[in-house]
Structures are given as C-alpha cells and as structure tokens.
Amino acid sequence: MKSILNKDSNKVLVQGLGRDGSFQTQKCIDYGTEVVAGVHPTKAGENFNEIPIFGSVEEAVKHTSPDIGLIFVPAPFASDAIIEQVDAGIETVVCITEGIPVNDMLKVNNYIKGKKVRLIGPNCPGFLIPRKKLKVGIIPGSIVSEGKVGVVSRSGTLTYEAIVQLTMLGIGQSACVGIGGDPLHGTSFVDVLQMFEEDQNTEAIVMIGEIGGTREQAAAKMIKESISKPVVASIVGQTAPEGRRMGHAGAVITGKSALASEKIKSLKSAGVYIADSPTEIGLRLKELI
Amino acid sequence: MKSILNKDSNKVLVQGLGRDGSFQTQKCIDYGTEVVAGVHPTKAGENFNEIPIFGSVEEAVKHTSPDIGLIFVPAPFASDAIIEQVDAGIETVVCITEGIPVNDMLKVNNYIKGKKVRLIGPNCPGFLIPRKKLKVGIIPGSIVSEGKVGVVSRSGTLTYEAIVQLTMLGIGQSACVGIGGDPLHGTSFVDVLQMFEEDQNTEAIVMIGEIGGTREQAAAKMIKESISKPVVASIVGQTAPEGRRMGHAGAVITGKSALASEKIKSLKSAGVYIADSPTEIGLRLKELI
Amino acid sequence: MQLHEYQAKEILNSSKVPIPDGKVAKSGIEAKEIASSFGGNCVVKAQVHAGGRGKAGGIKLANNPDEASEHADNMIGSFLKTFQSGDTEFPINEVYIEEASSILKEYYLAVTMDFDFKCPVIIFSTEGGMNIEEVAEKYPDKIIKIHVDPLVGPSPYKIRNLISVFKFDKEISSQLYKIINQLYGIFISNDCTLIEINPLALVEGNNLVALDAKITIDDDALFRHKDLLKLFDEAQINKSELNAQKNDLAYIKLSGGEVGCMVNGAGLAMATMDITMKAGALPANFLDVGGSASEERIMEAYNIITSDADVKLILVNLFGGILRCDVAAKGIIEGFKKYNKSVPMVVVLRGTNSEEAKNILKESSMEIYFSDDLPSAAEEINKRLGK
Amino acid sequence: MQLHEYQAKEILNSSKVPIPDGKVAKSGIEAKEIASSFGGNCVVKAQVHAGGRGKAGGIKLANNPDEASEHADNMIGSFLKTFQSGDTEFPINEVYIEEASSILKEYYLAVTMDFDFKCPVIIFSTEGGMNIEEVAEKYPDKIIKIHVDPLVGPSPYKIRNLISVFKFDKEISSQLYKIINQLYGIFISNDCTLIEINPLALVEGNNLVALDAKITIDDDALFRHKDLLKLFDEAQINKSELNAQKNDLAYIKLSGGEVGCMVNGAGLAMATMDITMKAGALPANFLDVGGSASEERIMEAYNIITSDADVKLILVNLFGGILRCDVAAKGIIEGFKKYNKSVPMVVVLRGTNSEEAKNILKESSMEIYFSDDLPSAAEEINKRLGK
User: Fold this and answer.
1) Residues in chain B closer than 8 A to D157 (CB atoms)
2) From CA D304, how far away is CA D296, in angstroms rounded?
3) Residue C230 CA to chain centroid, in angstroms?
4) A113 contacts chain B (CB < 8 A)
5) Per residue in B233-274, pLDDT tens?
6) Looking at CA atoms only, how far is residue B150 from chain A in angstroms?
7) Which domain holds residue A28?
8) How many structural domains comprise chain B?
C-alpha cells in the first residue's frame, strides 16, 4: 500500500454532513481538496455544493470511486461509519469524531486488523499536504505553508500551534498529520514517522506528544532504530495535575511511562531534540535546518 | 511460511493425553514421528514413554520447541487448546477432536485470521507423509505407502479407504491430508491442492468430497485456474437421503451447491476425473499414470 | 436439537421479540379455556418438529372457544406427516393456542451460519409466509443477506441499507432494527444453528410480530445449555433414532432398505450406502458410530440395527483410526450376547487393530462373511440379496 | 463515571460474584438496624468517590449495632479527604454497613483496558489489600496479567496457568475461574473502563469474596446505559466541575492558581498551562471546551471560570478547527452579559474565523488584551501577574 503522502489519486468522500461536517467540508473544498461525494442517511439524492450525496458509502463508492473517507458522524454511530467505509473498500479512513466509546473502538481495531486500510483517528484533526492542496480534516488551511517539515501530533489544536510557529518562521510543511488523542486509535506515531522517513519531500520532523500512555516511548524506540531525519519533539502536560483516580490498575499497566519526564527521557536518548516549552517548537527546529 | 509438506523440522507436541490421545500418540511414535512433548493439565511433570509432559503449551514450547501441535483434547476444551497452541507460536496445529461447538470454531477462525498458523481440522484424521515417516494424527500407518500421489479428503475413514485402494494397486502416496468434516475448519481443499501443486514429490492428486457445503466448488474453480497435475475426485453421499430439516435458511445460503450432482458437474468442468463409485478411486487414478 | 414453536416463542418473548399472545394446551378443555381468555378468535397449531404444518392440516383457525376445543381434540393424540417431514409421522401431544392476528403483510427473517463466509448471516425477505427457497431462486433481489462479524455484531449501516432498499417507513424500520438485533442476540447466546421467523407479520396497528418461529440448537454446544436441554421432546423422534442419539450414534432409518450398515465416519458411511446401492441392494439405514466409539456404543449400535425388522443382512465396515477395531468387535459380541439377536453379517475390518478384531469375531457363533475390501463386500451382498 | 462501592457491589451481586452481606444506611438509626440484622459485628464504610478510605478514617469496625450507629453518625454529614483524592474533600452522605469477614488471605483482581495491546486485561495478584502499584514495582512476579481477545473472552488456559503458578487448590481455583469470567462479563456489558476488587478475600470456609469494589464506566458510552446513569452521585463532584460536566466541558480546578484558562483541545490546554507556569503565574484550572463547542457551551465555560474567586486573569487560547472562533467569541459575550461578571482577559485567537471573532470581542466593553501568539500572551500574563 502506498503511503498517504504519495498517492496519485486523492478523491475524498465525506460521511456525516451535519452542521460541523458541512462547514468543514466546505473548508476542505476551498483549500483545493477534491471532494467527490457526501454520505448522509437522510439526504440521499441531494447535493452539497454540486457534490452528490448518497445514502450509503457503498452507493457513493460505486458512483464516485473515492480514495479517502472522512468521517464527521456523531460518536454513537461513528464506529459503524468506520466499518462501513472499510467494508466499501476505502483505503484511507480519517475519523474526526471525538467521544467514541472505548468498546466501539476496541471492535473497530479488531475488525481492521489484517485488512488493507489505514485508519487515522478517531478524535483527530486529520491530515493536510500543502504541496498537493489536500486537506482531509479540520487543520486550518490558513496556517500551513508548503515546505519540507513533517508534523505529527496526538493533540489537535496543539498541532496548529506548532504549524503556526513553523510558518511564522518561514518553515513550510511537507505534511501535517494529527493521529488523535484517543487511547485506541488507528495510525500511530510510529506509522507516520515511517512515512516521513520514506517521503522524499520531508527533511525534518516535528512530533508533539502528551502525558499518558506509552506511545511516545514506542516512537522513541523506532526513531532510534530507523529514522535518519532530524526530529524535534515536545511533550505537553508537564504541569498538569495527576488527576484523581479511583483504582490503580491503569498505573500497573503503563507504569511510570505515562509521565512527561519519562517520555522526554526516552526521546532524548533516541537522539530527538526536545522543545522544553511548546512555544519553542518552531525555534528548535529552525536551529536544525 | 513453508508448506507442511516440505518443512525441515517436524517435532510434534501432543495436547490431550487421555485414553485415545495416548493410544494414538504411541501409534505416531511407532510410525517414526518425532514426538517431543505432551501437554496435559493434571499430568505435568510425568512422562509418556520418556516424552516429558508439561502443564501448558507455553512450558512445552519453551523446553522442546515443537513445530507441530496435535490436539486430542475433549470437545468443550478443544477450541481453547487451539488458541493456546497458536498463542505459543506453534505454526502447524492439527485438531483431531470432533464435536466442537460451531460458535467456538467461529471464534477460532476469527482469532487465527491473519496469524501465521496453519490449522488442520478439527474433526479430521490429520496428515501423514510416508517419505518423512511423519504421521500427525490418526491415519493408520499400516495402509500407506511411499509414492507420488497426494490424497486430500473431508472424510476421515473414507480417506483410509482411498489410501488402501492406492496402496493395493501399488500406488504410493506423497502425503495424505484429512481436512475434516466440520463446516468451520482451518485448512481447505484449496490450500492443500496448492501445496500439492507446489510439491515436487507429488505427481497426481486424489480428492474426496462429500455432499453439503460449497467447498468442492471452490476446489473446482481453483483446479481450473491453477492446478496442472491430474486430479481424481470422488463425491460421496449420492444415495444419502436429504434428511429432514426444520427451516430453509441453510438452503437459501448454499442453494443447490450442496448436492453431489452439482459438485460432480463443477469438478468435471474443471477437468477433474471422477470416480463414480468410491471403490474405483484407485483404479481411476491408475488409468492416469 | 429442534425446539417446538411454543418453546421458541418463549425464548423470543423473553428477549422482547414481539409475538402474539399464546399458550400451550394438552387437551380440548385446556384449549377452550385459553381461547376464551383471548376472546374467541384464535389459531390452533400442532406442536411437532416439522415444517409445512399448515398444508398438512396442523394449523386450524377457530372462531370461538368451542371450535378451538374441537380442533385441539382432533389433533392431540393424532400424527402429522408434512411435505418436509420425510417418511416420519410426528405425534401431536400438545397444541399451541394463539390469538388470531390481522395480517397486513408477511416477511421472512432468519439467522443462521454462512459457512462459506465463516460468520453468521441474517436473511430477510419481503416475501414471507411462502417457500423461501423458491423466492431465493426466482426473485433473488427480494432477499437480502446481512453477514455479521461476530465481534462487531449486526452492523447498523447494513440494516439501514436493507431498510432503505425496501423503503420501510420510520416506525417499522425501528421495530425491524430492534427485532434483528434481538434475534441475533438469541442466536449467539443460545448457540443456535438456526432461528427462522416465517412469517414475520406486519399486523393491524402497524406492528411487526413473529407469527411462527423455528429454533435449532447446536447439539455439540448443548453441554453448556442445561436449561435448553430440558426442552428436548423425545416423543418427536423415532425410537431407534432416539436410542442412537442417547448413545452418541448418528443414525437415520431409511425406508425400504434391507442392508443394515454399521460404519465409522460419515463419509465412509455414505460411501458404504452408495456401494450397497451399486451392489443391487438398498441400505436400511445410515449409521456412523463416530470417531472414538466405546464397546458399549457399538453394542447399542448392534442392537439398533438388529431391532429393525427390515434388516436382512448387516454390512459392518469399520476402518480403525481413532476407533480401535478390537474394541468394536468386542462391542458386537456383547450386543449379540445381551440382545440375543442375530442377522448374517458381511464384515470389512481395516486399520487399527483389525487383525485382533477379526480373531475376536471368528471365535463367536455368529454368521459372518469376512471381506478384505469394499468391492468384495459388495459382491458378497449382491450374492446374498442382489436382484 | 465512578460508582460508589455499594453500587458496584450490587452489580457484582447481580452477576453472582460473591460479596459479603451489606446494605446502605443514610443515618445512624438505619445503620443500627442493618448491623442488628447481621448479628452485630460489622464494618461501616463511608461511600465516597475516593480510594484510600481506610487510612483516612472512612472505614470503621463495629463490634455491635450501637457502635455501628455511632460510626455512621460520625461519618454521615462529614467530609473525607484521602491520599488519593487530591485536594478534594468528599461529602459522606451514605455509609455501607457490611457483615465483618474473617479474612485468611487477600488477593487483588482487576479488569481494565491495556491500550498498548488494544484489548482488555485482567490483573491478578497474590498481594491484595495493599498498594498494587508498589507490588508491581517491587514484586512483578506476584502480578499476572491476562490479555483478553475481545471475541474469544478470557482464555481458560490462561486462567489455568495463573492458577498453576500460584498453586491454588481445586476448590479455590474453580471459584476464581468463575469470578474472573463474571467480572469480565460485567466489564464488557457495562462499558466499564475499570473494575477493581481489592481485596478479593479468602475468608473462613475457603470462600473468595469481593471485600471492596471499584467500578468506573466509560463516560462516552453512558448514552447506552440509562440504568447506570441513574447511579451518578452529583454530590461527589465539585460544583464547578459538575456544571462543566453537564455542559460537556472538561474542567479541573487547580488549587493556588490565578490564571483561568479557556482553551480548545486537551493538548493545547496542557500546553497553555505549561506556558502560564513558565510566564511566572499559576494556572487556576484546566479547561478544554472541546472540539465543536457551541455558543452556549462557551458561555457556561465563561461562567465557570469567572465564578472562581481565585481567578485574577483569564487566558483565552482558542485555535479554530472544528471550533469556529466567531461562535466562541459570541459565547464569551453572551456569558459576560448573562452572568454579569468580568475579569481581564488575554486573548489569543487563531484558525477558523478568528478575524471575525476578534472583531466581535473588540466591540464589547470587556477588558481584553489581544495577543497574536503564545509567547506574546505569556509576556502579557507576566506583565500583569508575574512575580
């Protein structure tokens, strides 16, 4: 399967054209994205700005052959939408929806195991490739600029912050990918880092992590082993309160890895450049190139 | 993954050493099979004819590195045994047990999807490769002989019938594989036909089918497309009564494909030689070589 | 294991699948009482393990409690044979008295396993109340199949697509959606191999109700459903078949045959029947003693075959694998001794411990013709019975 | 959503996980009655949403009904603060009166989600009744984790291996086996994120019972568990946080802070707090207005922040994506109008419709300092509050 960064065809299907979905779809179109179909159970046969709306993904695929599916469906129905897109053969599925139950994503993750699909998200801002005028999701088109830095982040809005800093400093992006904040998600840091490593349009990488989980450690291990391009990382949540909790099982599972300090330690030992403050991501990268 | 017909190492672990399991394991050993470990929950630490018995597959694997797992565990626990062997990294799992609930095999089939494992069975006689003195299952060693014909069958004892006919006519076997009679099973006709096609020790193939299901049709399609070696097939159940049934859903699913006549038609059109009577399998093959 | 309609409906009801009011009656008097409680108009349905009851007279409309009583009295104690029941006549010991429904439209809904797809499948058709196999052949577009991932369950989008294909209104859509999910839940949690609702009727008031219900349970999974085991109605099964079932033997009596078959393995058993037929005789039964038959099981198999008055000759065809021929031979001898019945036997023994087995049988006083292989066994049969 | 111990135990009990006899009391009199029905010896447990109750005085032994009554009276109406509860004091409105158990040994058993493995995990330890995190660090071999395939469920062989590692006898093994399966069933069917039994006690008579029980439900799945929603105890949550929760806002009050933060996105919210700290001021709260906040939600967020007397300055940092900055600006204006509270604001607005938003805010009479980016916002904060 070709990396999403280098596919030739990038026709987008949007599922869920409610208030937010419609607004954001328009922004994608305005940016230059080729949106070919909408899917909405009660709006079949209608149009959205000359884009035909279908009642099911299967119908939409039959008529418009999209390459990418973008999901704005409300949380209780979002996991079903992911499965519907996978079943219809869409290779890249981007789910923006937040608040999907853990059990639903558990099922989705199991379902797509071994299937030829790249799921990005859920609870993510999607991805944007300035060079291709391709915006699949909600990253504001106004803040990006074309260039050679790949940005990957668990956080939505914080990604924008990093992008703005880069753009302000005159550093353009090869691609910006938000992998989402949910603990059960599709594409991981490791996957995107691999894409950036293989992408000839990317020369340096910005990675934004958070406290919680062990994903940054997995990324650190992978960077050490197989990433040759320079990486700048920032981990937010250093001053966040630990939060009350009832039980201890979670801590037994992740151990100390959830702490910002542990993540920074891992990344440093993998040769990653750390931006101590989230305001310094751009500056830190500028020093490297 | 190398085909089971051509693996270099063929160390066997046996799980379930009750009355039948013990008896049949001894027969495997007598035939020349390298049985390296037994697994039985209450016999850990004991020996079976100098073969160590372990309490779990994981322990057995750690100490004896088996390549093949053979299961005689009673039906209510057999699906768990399959999963235990898969989890322990055994690449070829042969399950002799009959009477496993459909729902259990549904779970197993889902579980192994995409995993690096070849499951043979359940409710099957296993496989036997005369050339390697390798008998994994319950095919009687006394009836086989070394040669160039590959035998594959859904039926247990009917496989023996076919083997006997071949042996009596002086036609040896490259391998005999019983894929089992259960509707939800691991390895299919198609898989074994592929192995025989690729196996340089096999020059002709005997395939024994039954009424019910659509597996013979799948085999016919595959033979037409990619099997260059001659195939003799027999379909039993031509005189079997249709059997009473309550509903019609099953018939809606398989349609007429379940009938012997339909299966024979498919196979004939794929260039397969049909033995009209099960007593003529050997003779029919002899005509070909 | 098959359930009676009333048992299936109890299960549906406890999972909130709508059914008409109904109750089982074991006599005309009971039927009258129940019918009265429904206000008179009702349906009297024979509780037998066979489909096609309507055409065979097993379902009768009653306009008042007296008629219900009369129908019930006529049915109870009689036997029913339908186009789906083969040669078997099923005893009617109970009838189900059900409130009559004003049917607007009949649909078909079933859950079963699709072994090609290795997953459960939901089958829906707008053509209910009729032979669904015929519908499948003639109007395939009137049938929709929903394959179900066992972890995910019935995907809402697939049900939505079904609903949109047949243009159901919102009210019915929501009922159908629920019923499909409930049936699927019943299917999985009870280890069913089939649930069939035919018809699923749209009745006055725009409600969907299950007018008939067939449920079959996976026999191999019954060990974990002690509650369902209690629903087993022995009376619905031929005595020999019941005896066989109790002894874990797969046995089907065939009418008109004269050669009793005792074989291990379903495939070999079918082959043996095919061969018997080619030898010019008719098999009297299908009997698979199974993979690891014990002496006792073989003994019972012997008893079942010899109890069939049609049997003139027995063909024993055992191929030792996991079954040990010597164990089987001992079982036959024990059966002969215990039940004191003897029929001439053609015996083919091969595989595990077959030589020991032959020696054991040779020492008995039974009339046995040994054959080394199936062709010679066929000749032997032809010699004794061939026409 | 967290449940009280007594609520969790009701769920365990209905799934046949053994628990000691127990009942909730809302007064000393009720406590006395319940204790009498147990014969006197009992434990009085404060029902609060915090672990570590024992050390904090929230669990008391009573030797007779009068003592139980006394403990209950002392607890009810008071507040409990434990080492696990952060700065929060939890009101005790109910106590749980439980029959005293003769404990022979304490184990630990939990079910939660292992996100690295993307599947549920069962955690068992022979060292129950103590801090399991400490056990995990010091004696990792005394903890066994069983990863569960969501379709297959807890594999019997894995439980068997666990039992064999710790050499449990047959009787206890079978109890443990059942309890693990029951807990897993509860975990899945109720969309739990955690079930923790600490201790799972072996009591006299060789029986395993759940002495304590903690259950947390996935908030995102509550829409399909109306029954569980009823168990929500508002009293256990800080008023502002409760108000935030009702408005789908993620809000945590931080003690000692003075800069109220209004941010969209958890990551950006944490970054904003980090930056505030670096600017020499302390954040008064974490507040994520979420991805698609409406005008109303922003209005409530404004109210919550301005209701905090500690807040001297508000830092609004919104990056429009799915959130539209103009909508947020209107919400702030509405909040200002409706609640008539005003605190100086440093505002950073970027992304979707941020220019429109700035214009809307500029037209208001509020004291607002606009910044184009975070460094300049940090400077602004430092200028006003920096030490």
Assistant:
1) 56-57, 80-81, 83-84
2) 12
3) 17
4) yes
5) 999 888 776 654 445 666 666 777 788 889 999 999 999 999
6) 32
7) 11-120
8) 2
